[in-house]
């Protein structure tokens, strides 16, 4: 299996932390990693994380990688066609960090990906629906949290990469559907979504693939309760301005992590539409030691 061979070749979070100083993908300085020399033990990391052309090496499953179109070989050098990033027990497939900025680009996991994934409560559920799953970061980071996981993704390239990530990770209980979030699927115990930025927040520094029309949010807040079983939980990372908190019913616990003087504000919402009506809003100060919201923050005292 290609995934097993890549992990054996050093494509693991532990090896990434030893090589790069961190295994947190948004904190990587990819250009610096690509520019510096690497040891043979870091071949897989240099190739698939830093995007550096490397010598063909017996540590890598070269023939299998060529057959799947994951690399190209020229004059004894391997060139990665995609990024393959070690996250938790899995491998995430996305575009290279230097890929052209198009509307279908499959982005690297960013801090918002971690905010959502780390905010999902521990404890296994029978079914998990991830809306707008992208490369399936959250399900692949925590495949142990559900017996069946379904990711919905509108970008067909991202859907294909999410399927490949699940295959490389050896995770058979994750399925990916190329569809809009309104697709008719059975309700799940857990629904998650790392929502894009509202169009109104976009400026010249915000990439086109990270924003969406506001109509998505109107449909999102309508669809989520329909996709949850009774007593089910939704965990949503989004811009606070896109959360109609007063219009939503049930238990709503919001943790905002951006500083009060920074706009737009972002946060994680834990929402149980069938629970007793209650709204609690808290603020979490991010630190170097604790750079992301986590499931434990759900119990923060409201401000």
In short:
The protein is an alpha/beta fold and 303 residues long. It has helices at 2-8, 13-20, 30-35, 43-48, 62-67, 111-119, 137-141, 156-168, 215-226; strands at 54-55, 71-74, 77-80, 83-87, 90-94, 125-131, 146-153, 174-178, 188-194, 197-198, 211-212, 228-239, 251-256, 266-272, 278-283.
**CATH homologous superfamily of the largest domain, by name?**
Vaccinia Virus protein VP39
Beta-strand content bin? 25-35%
Structural class: alpha/beta
Helix content: 10-25%
Biggest sheet statistics: 8 strands, mixed
Instruction: Give me the CATH architecture of the largest domain, please.
Output: 3-Layer(aba) Sandwich
| H-E string | HHHHEHEEEEHEHEHEEEEHEEEE
Number of domains: 2
Structure, described:
With 303 residues, the protein is α/β, with parallel strands linked by helices. The chain has two domains: 80 residues, no CATH class; 189 residues, Rossmann fold (3-Layer(aba) Sandwich). Helices cover 24% and strands 27% of the residues. It has nine helices and 15 strands. The strands form four sheets. The chain has an eight-stranded mixed sheet with strand order 8-7-6-9-12-14-13-15. It has a three-stranded antiparallel sheet with strand order 1-3-2. Helix 8 links the parallel strand 7 and strand 8. The longest helix is centred in the middle third of the chain and has 13 residues. The radius of gyration is 20 Å and the shape is globular. The termini are far apart. The relative contact order is 0.11. About 4% of the residues have low confidence.
């Amino acid at each position: 299996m290609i995934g097993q061979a890549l992990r054996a070749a050093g494509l693991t979070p532990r090896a990434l932390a030893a090589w790069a100083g961190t295994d947190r993908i948004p904190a990587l300085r990819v250009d610096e990693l690509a520019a510096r020399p690497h040891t043979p033990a870091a071949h897989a990391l240099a190739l698939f994380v830093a995007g550096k052309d490397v010598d063909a090496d017996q540590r890598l499953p070269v023939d299998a990688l060529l057959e799947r179109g994951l690399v190209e070989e020229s004059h004894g050098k391997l060139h990665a066609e995609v990024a393959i990033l070690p996250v938790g027990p899995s491998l995430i497939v996305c575009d290279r960090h230097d890929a052209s900025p198009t509307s279908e680009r499959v982005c690297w996991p960013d801090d918002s990906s971690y905010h959502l994934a780390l905010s999902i409560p521990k404890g296994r559920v029978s079914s998990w629906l991830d809306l707008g799953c992208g490369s399936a970061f959250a399900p692949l980071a925590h495949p142990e949290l559900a017996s069946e996981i379904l990711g919905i993704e509108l970008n067909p390239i991202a859907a294909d990469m999410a399927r490949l990530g699940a295959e490389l990770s050896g995770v058979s209980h994750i399925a990916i559907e190329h569809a809009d979030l309104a697709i008719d699927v059975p309700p799940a115990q857990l629904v998650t979504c790392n929502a894009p930025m509202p169009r109104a927040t976009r400026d010249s520094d915000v990439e086109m693939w990270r924003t969406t029309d506001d109509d998505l949010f109107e449909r999102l807040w309508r669809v989520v309760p329909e996709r949850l079983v009774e007593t089910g939980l939704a965990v949503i990372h989004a811009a606070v301005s896109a959360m109609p908190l007063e219009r939503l019913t049930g238990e709503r616990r919001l943790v905002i992590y951006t500083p009060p003087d920074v706009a737009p504000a972002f946060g994680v919402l834990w929402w149980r539409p069938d629970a007793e009506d209650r709204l609690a809003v808290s603020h979490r100060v991010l630190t170097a030691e604790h750079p992301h919201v986590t499931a434990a923050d759900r119990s923060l005292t409201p401000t």
